[in-house]
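Q: Structure tokens for this one, please.
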Amino acid sequence: MIKFSVVMPTFNQANFIEKAILSILSQTERSFELIVVNNYSSDNTYEIVNSFDDNRIKIFNFNNNGIIAASRNLGILKSNGSFIAFLDSDDIWYPTKLEECLKIINKGYNFISHKVHFKDKNKLITGIGIKNDFNLDSLLFKGNFIATSSVIVSKVLLNKLNGFNTRKEIVNSEDFDLWLRILSLENGFMIPLFLGENVIHDLNASNDIEKSYVSAKNVLDLFLKNENIYKKKKSFGFLLYSFGMAHFKINRYKVAINYFIKSFENNPFLIRCYILIILSYFRIFFKMLK
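A: Here is the predicted structure, written as tokens:
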């Protein structure tokens, strides 16, 4: 039986998908198949995928109506592997990714991730991730540190949870929703190695951040609806802090301050919010002096 099924949703990624596929084909672990779910791309994405003469690669055309979770769920449905790996068509894996993940699978874990580098144009940026075993509280109170293209999950576990949630109100955060549901059943393992690379496109404008915040908030609203008020406030406090940082990094200090204040109101123990509010005011002040 095939060990890994790699699910790759795509739409108009002709400039990236060849490199993504080559990174899969270069894996030192050879027991895999690749399932590409193409959202009827209007460029030559389909032709590029079919140019590979490898019977492990399958492509399906599928209209996902703007919900990428639906494409991933179709890929899971079409898969034959014991474990499902996800790779977006503009990201890449390093050659030992599957080999290193298999070592952790053999220790009994069903939910595995690893550190990733983020690439902004030609510059590699330090990646995200924490070390080793992680649980539900790690995700609720430290943020979504799990990159989708780093994840491998047991197919049995995915089927038990009915895969990704396709509700429109959580588009952009359907991965966060699934990770929370998985971690409510069992712990995951984060490999403390950089085994992949994610491309950051010029899509990080403030409106994209706001949409992502709303969808992430909707995920927490659904997941925590029966939890106590302390747990809700603590997790929402960190969510607000995380999105405040997203605005801070693109120099939208006034918006960032609003997020940090709301974060503090929910979770007054996030001391870093105090520091960032002061720092934001200083940067606004010095910007006015220029």
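A few notes: The chain has a mean pLDDT of 92. The first strand starts at residue 4 and ends at 10.
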